[in-house]
User: Fold these one by one.
Assistant:
Number 1:
Amino acid sequence: MNIALIAHDNKKDMLVNFAIAYEQIFSRHAIFATGTTGKRVMESTHLKVHRFLSGPMGGDQQIGAEIANNRMDLVIFLRDPMTAQPHEPDIQALIRLCDVHLIPVATNIASAEIMLKALERGDFRWRQYLHKYESPVR
Ligand SMILES: O=C(CO)COP(=O)(O)O
């Protein structure tokens, strides 16, 4: 599965700790991230992370494009609900695209943990059927 990891600054430590705690599960999947989040995860784990641009520089939009092209199976986006972000429209657009394309998205650590356990249990297997029938234009 392709998993996107994104965290706002106040949530980055939490996401890094989450990545450390569940490194064994993450290591069996392809990991993508916005720039700074990906850097932090790579510094603290052995995970190989495909990094996009930093969120405010367009990274959220790049991940949104992956979602629109059915190339993301799970999005873990630890948002900071207490701090205004300069790229708020990009954040809303990313989450909206998850809803448009029925991509499971966790926006806090409690739901992220449930999602990962579901992934481990095989609850995301339905995503493979979508990959099977997707358009060859990629
Ligand atoms: O701003 C972000 C998501 O909206 C995250 O971007 P960074 O991982 O580059 O800090």
Number 2:
Amino acid sequence: MSDTPAPPVILGDEPGSFPHSVLAERHPAIIRQVREAFPYGPDVHRRLDALRESCAEGVVEALPDTAPDRDRWRDWGLDAYVGRSWFDVPWLWSESYFYRQLLEAVGYFGTGPWRGIDPFRPFKLAELDAPETDAELAALDGLGARPAGERDRALLHGSLWGNRADLGFRLSDAQAQERAAVPALVADDSDTFWSLLPAGDTARTRTLCLVADNSGRELIPDLLLAAHLLAQGRCGRVVLHVKPYPYYVSDATTADVVDALRKLTGAPGAAADHGRRLWTAMAEGTLTIRAHPFSAAPLPCTAMPADLRAEFAQAALTVVKGDLNYRRLVGDSRWPPTTPFADVTAYFPGPVAALRTLKSDVITGLDAGTEAALVAAEGLRWRTGGTHALIQVRE
Ligand SMILES: O=P(O)(O)OC[C@H]1O[C@](O)(CO)[C@@H](O)[C@@H]1O
């Protein structure tokens, strides 16, 4: 555990705040979009109406007795929150439970015909088929001829900035993608990142865990980074942690990994070579997928179960992607931004790297000058606008 006491966890109860807007505006918008994307029958429509009303004015409700994960959610705090306003429980918890209840409403865990149908799939596929995705893949053609250091940087930054591709974020902030990214990182531990993965004979025994975030235009560069690290002999095995079920609109599941690999192998040029190498890596077991239930838990990573802790302890490095995973990694609190990243991640069982664009209030590990410059230029907007990014590493 960290020696630094955490400030109180963030709630969604302050009108005008970012968390409040997510509960009050983003969630109803997501319900609307999912409803429009599928020809659901009257039962699903009724349940979606009920969820929308519950989000606006109601309270957290229990899962049905038949829910396969009911006991797990009870372990994750459900009983303490049932009957309370969505706005008064930890924001991390209420957001996560919203996605669980949305899956309930569309019959994802039921026994009917909608069982296992990802309600976000149309949005994910549209993104995968977008011209921007093809343009990003075409850019791989020139990369092979570049010097090694340049390729390292391009693939690391490709994975980092891929985190801007977040469909949930764009649903509530239509201008998000148009706002220009600020290339200078607010924290940059890339040198430490590379120092933890030196190429060489012993690297073959080294495992890298990559805790994925979004599918599509984030997952593809994550896979390309994994392929690069394996090809460079910087690690011998990559374990890709994905979500066990659809979550936060675009979070990657196993099905999304398959779609991303098929997109790569079906693309022209160098992208297909990378895709084939990744396909082979899956067949040989040097790239494996893990869909642990805790990856979609409404809790900070301090609560991770023993089996996951043991896995991360054995990894040479765990790379944690994205904003939500960052909130879980450091704790969903408004830390003073200069709180050392190493302190708040001291509990983590092995070396850990965060690759994240800034899309919520949580931030640690800034130096005082950087924070002051950001505040002077943007007020509080830099924290949530998705235009800034960081690479933070704790050895
Ligand atoms: O896909 P990411 O990077 O985890 O972002 C998830 C988004 O949802 C949030 O968790 C807020 O709902 C933000 O942190 C971010 O806008």
